[in-house]
From TrEMBL:
Any one Pfam family match given in the protein's UniProt record, by short name: ABC_tran
The keyword Membrane appears for this protein: yes
Domain ABC transporter: 2-236
Organism in which the protein naturally occurs: Pseudomonas typographi
InterPro entries xref list: AAA+_ATPase (IPR003593), ABC_ATPase_HisP-typ (IPR030679), ABC_transporter-like_ATP-bd (IPR003439), ABC_transporter-like_CS (IPR017871), MetN_ABC_transporter-like (IPR050086), P-loop_NTPase (IPR027417)
Signal peptide extent: none
Name listed for the protein in its UniProt record: Amino acid ABC transporter ATP-binding protein
Similarity field: Belongs to the ABC transporter superfamily.
Amino acid sequence: MITLRDVCKAYGQFQVLSHCSTHVAKGEVVVVCGPSGSGKSTLIKTVNGLEPVNAGEIIIDGVSVTARGTNLSTLRARVGMVFQHFELFPHLSIIQNLMLAQVKVLKRTRPQAHKKGMALLDRVGLVAQAHKFPGQLSGGQQQRVAIARALAMDPVALLFDEPTSALDPEMINEVLDVMIELAREGMTMMVVTHEMGFARKVANRVIFMDRGEIVEDAEKNAFFDQPRSERAQQFLSKILVH
Ligand SMILES: Nc1ncnc2c1ncn2[C@@H]1O[C@H](COP(=O)(O)OP(=O)(O)OP(=O)(O)O)[C@@H](O)[C@H]1O
Ligand SMILES: [Mg+2]
């Protein structure tokens, strides 16, 4: 579903991504972790063309993200992205937030978009909030809306960049629960997160990045039980002690 081949990216002299290659199969959940500044956000943003690359190739569902002439807005409509800071439109109600791109990009009628939006709000447990504005919802609720908004586009895959790291601790699980359910339903997902409990529960593989390189790309249990590289061992010992 998602293939990266030798992806390189630099900001001036600074190499943010060096020869990153991986493959995410349909229905697979891949967790991306690594120290701050290692290139996780940049990697995930290159996947749906939010960040251009200097070299290498990215293919999603048979369509090249990196080839010239690819319509990036069509592609982005097919790959959902959920960020740390929900990025809902503050002046639109929750249901309007869910309808907007369905109507503008997918050309659904307003009744169709409304129906789909309400069904997704039901799925994330927020039907009662449909007519409120984002500012009236908790962080956990807003993030669930952001996930529903991504799902409204019938994406072929979902990308997450630290979806729970801006949330108060008591709200983390309500968001992770939605993600766990999506994973179990077979959604293809790439998730940048430090939630190793989530990784252990639903990830198929873990990618560990350091200094712009994919240092490990391993089956989940292999990664947690026997990380090959010293850098991954150090990283795990730091984040798993608490
Ligand atoms: N627009 C930019 N211009 C220059 N350097 C950048 C830019 N965006 C990111 N970087 C640098 O690229 C490196 C990787 O950044 P990135 O945000 O991908 O890291 P990250 O692994 O997501 O870190 P974090 O865990 O803190 O979110 C960092 O050193 C960062 O300073
Ligand atoms: Mg980041």
